[in-house]
């Protein structure tokens, strides 16, 4: 149905909303908790805007591991009650998401907790997301893959996974127009607008911790980056609901907007296009 509507070849939706806490973050949270247990840590910590913290809290609770989650006090933080209900200790930090990450890293150094923050044990993240690529490749050999961009970790891990299989699809990052380092650097801008909202929260990142890897993946794959405002995210959320039968987070639904813009910009309509919808609306 989407193919007919957009006039393109084949569209495949890789939907991560069925994970325990509703997003792809469960993949890396599970991997980090398992690594923390293997290495004898008594606790795990992370700085987060929400989804990753909920995932860490969930998987830590399953394994009896103490979780301390740092969040930026000024953000919407809609998943705080869920984290607390799962037994995590939540610490609100003045400032930005990046400040919460730094506070968590400092806490890990002081207490000896496992540091699950982006950039701290990135090979664990990349391995978990490269497994997503294996799953996608078992269904289709993609021409282009559209991925939400926050820190750039997911796109980087997917590219590593595809490349390991000898597959080289065009990697297209899709993010908010109002605050993402990868978007800004892709277009050669030194500064950009920043506005965190309840819809773009998973994507805003003044400092994208895996920006170098993501930009390299985009360059190697001859990919691209697109940024969109919230109204576009909401419009494509409704379109995915009505055509694909899923209930995506607006930040994840932007991948469809990315596909539409990609087709219009480059005139590429024939091919196998994969939309990585990283999260769905979750009732915790």
Describe the structure.
Its cofactor is pyridoxal 5'-phosphate. Residues 3-279 form the Tryptophan synthase beta chain-like PALP domain. Keywords: Lyase, Pyridoxal phosphate. Belongs to the ACC deaminase/D-cysteine desulfhydrase family. It comes from Thermococcus celer Vu 13 = JCM 8558. The chain is α/β, with parallel strands linked by helices and 284 residues long. The chain folds into two domains: 2-22 and 123-277, Rossmann fold (3-Layer(aba) Sandwich); 25-115, Rossmann fold. The protein is built from eleven helices and nine strands. The protein has helices spanning 2-6, 25-38, 51-62, 80-85, 97-111, 122-137, 153-164, 181-186, 211-220, 230-244, 250-266, and strands at residues 10-15, 43-47, 66-72, 89-93, 114-115, 144-148, 170-176, 224-228, 272-277. Strands 1-9-6-7-8 form a five-stranded parallel beta sheet, with helices on both faces. A four-stranded parallel beta sheet has the order 4-3-2-5, with helices on both faces. Strand 2 (43-47), helix 3 and strand 3 (66-72) form a beta-alpha-beta unit. Helix 2 packs across helix 6 (122-137) and helix 6 (122-137) packs across helix 7. The longest helix has 17 residues, at 250-266. It is globular. 52% of the residues are buried.
Features:
284 residues, alpha/beta, Rossmann fold, 2 domains, four-stranded parallel sheet, globular, carbon-sulfur lyase activity, TrpB-like_PALP, Cys_Synth/Cystath_Beta-Synth, PLP-dependent lyase/thiolase, pyridoxal phosphate
